[in-house]
Automatic annotation (TrEMBL):
Transmembrane segments: 31-51, 79-100, 112-135
UniProt keyword Membrane, yes or no: yes
CDD domains: SQR_TypeA_SdhD_like
Pathway where it operates: Carbohydrate metabolism; tricarboxylic acid cycle
Keywords carried by this UniProt record: Electron transport, Heme, Iron, Membrane, Metal-binding, Transmembrane, Transmembrane helix, Transport, Tricarboxylic acid cycle
Protein name (Swiss-Prot/TrEMBL): Succinate dehydrogenase hydrophobic membrane anchor subunit
Cofactor(s) this protein requires: heme
Gene that encodes it: sdhD
Membrane topology label: Multi-pass membrane protein
NCBIfam families: succ_dehyd_anc
């Protein structure tokens, strides 16, 4: 009894998944997106860190609930953080999609994994965007002792 082991460099042949396909090349678009989003994310992340750690009086010790409340009161920083969130989640889920496509060979399991990645990305983007644009550190109708000290008494 002999067993043959294929060379590890032998590409896995997906059954009729990539042969004879027409239309846009989504893998190429995903590849380009990863490169472009990576460059933009580097700029966004270093801008975020520079503002929070270098240009804020008090440095890292000044970052607290009030700092975030004041930062999210400015539409520039709301959009900055939302774009950073969207790109980071999409970049990460596209990378996970690539890993699943490369290493999960059973079609049913691949569909489940890709569905879980897509739904996780959708939930993270939806909740993060909602929180960023609706964040209010001083909500109305709350007892004064529950509010942070920087909120004006009403």
């Amino acid at each position: 009894m002999t067993a043959t082991v294929e060379s590890p460099r032998t590409p896995y042949a997906y059954p009729a998944r990539s042969t004879g396909r027409r239309g846009p090349n989504l893998e190429k678009a995903g590849w380009i997106f990863m490169r472009a989003s990576g460059v933009v994310l580097v700029v966004l992340i270093f801008g975020h860190l520079a503002y929070n750690l270098l240009f804020t009086p008090g440095g890292i010790q000044a970052i607290d609930f009030g700092f975030i409340g004041g930062k999210f009161a400015n539409p520039l920083w709301q959009w900055w953080d939302v774009v950073m969130l969207w790109l980071a989640v999409l970049h990460g889920s596209n990378g996970m999609r690539t890993i699943v496509n490369d290493y999960v060979h059973r079609e049913g399991l691949r569909r489940i994994a890709l569905g879980a990645i897509a739904s996780s990305a959708f939930i993270l983007i939806a909740l993060g965007t909602l929180i960023t644009f609706t964040f209010d550190p001083c909500p109305t109708g709350v007892e004064a002792e529950l509010l942070p000290s920087f909120c004006a008494t009403r």
